[in-house]
Specification:
alpha+beta, elongated
Length: 57
């Protein structure tokens, strides 16, 4: 577990962060872990695609 006291020391060790597609999460990760790679969960991508397909044209 990372506490606020040792977060700056350990944040450099984080390489990948899995998030949903919320822009607030993306901004928070970018601010606190700028070198980490963002990974969007497969579930969230499928959910977005299904929602788009269900919409009326």
């Amino acid at each position: 577990m990372v506490t606020s006291a040792d977060a700056p020391l350990r944040s450099g060790q984080v390489r990948v962060v899995a998030i949903d597609m919320c822009t607030a999460f993306k901004a928070a990760v970018r601010d606190s872990l700028p070198h980490a790679t963002l990974l969007v969960g497969r579930f969230h991508v499928a959910q977005l695609a299904n929602t788009a397909l269900d919409e009326d044209p």
